[in-house]
């Protein structure tokens, strides 16, 4: 899986981040765990998807989109996206999250 070097992590998920990432990679996480990825449709910025989907689909597991955030629930994921957008606007003056992650070196 393609994890962002400077991953955004929800407060609940932060308590066990390394174990949670391992569970996501192995397809053992709970169905409520969400990942935030760069959208690969070319027109949207981000997608929020169940983390289990990343391990079920071979493409997503091997060469899927960059994972920029992880959260313990859908609600926490939406809050993280709001935080990301705020950081993006403060840093760049716009809300182009895809470019923000790619040009700021967060995708290392």
Structure description:
By secondary structure, the protein is of the alpha+beta class. The protein has one domain (3-103). The protein is 44% helix and 20% strand. Strands 1-4-2-3 form a 4-stranded mixed sheet. A hairpin with a 7-residue loop joins strand 2 (34-38) and strand 3 (46-50). The longest helix has 19 residues, at 74-92. The radius of gyration is 13 Å and the shape is globular. The relative contact order is 0.23.
Structure classification: alpha+beta
Largest sheet: number of strands, sense, barrel closure: 4 strands, mixed
CA-based gyration radius: 13 Å
Strand content: 15-25%
* Span between termini: 13 Å
Say how many strands there are. 4
Helix content: 40-55%
Number of helices: 5
Lateral strand order in the biggest sheet: 1-4-2-3
Work out the count of structural domains: 1
Q: What does the overall shape look like?
A: globular
Mean pLDDT: 88
* SSE topology string: EHEEHHEHH
In the predicted model, the low-confidence regions spanning at least 5 consecutive residues are none
Task: Give short descriptive properties of this protein.
108 residues, alpha+beta, four-stranded mixed sheet, 5 helices, 20% strand
Topology:
Blueprint: E1 3-9, H1 17-26, E2 34-38, E3 46-50, H2 52-56, H3 58-63, E4 67-71, H4 74-92, H5 97-103
Parallel strand pairs: 1-4
Antiparallel strand pairs: 2-3, 2-4
Summarize the structure.
The protein has helices at 17-26, 52-56, 58-63, 74-92, 97-103; strands at residues 3-9, 34-38, 46-50, 67-71. With 108 residues, the protein is an alpha+beta fold. The chain starts with a strand and ends in a 5-residue tail after the last helix.
């Amino acid at each position: 899986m393609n994890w962002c070097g400077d991953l955004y992590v929800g407060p609940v998920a932060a308590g066990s981040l390394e174990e949670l990432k391992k569970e996501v990679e192995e397809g053992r996480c709970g169905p409520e765990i969400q990942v935030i990825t760069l959208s690969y449709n070319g027109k949207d910025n981000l997608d929020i998807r169940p983390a289990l989907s990343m391990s079920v689909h071979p493409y997503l597991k091997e060469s899927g989109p960059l994972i920029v955030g992880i959260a313990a629930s859908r609600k926490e994921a939406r809050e993280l996206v709001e935080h990301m957008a705020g950081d993006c606007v403060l840093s760049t003056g716009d809300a182009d999250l895809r470019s923000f992650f790619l040009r700021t070196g967060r995708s290392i």
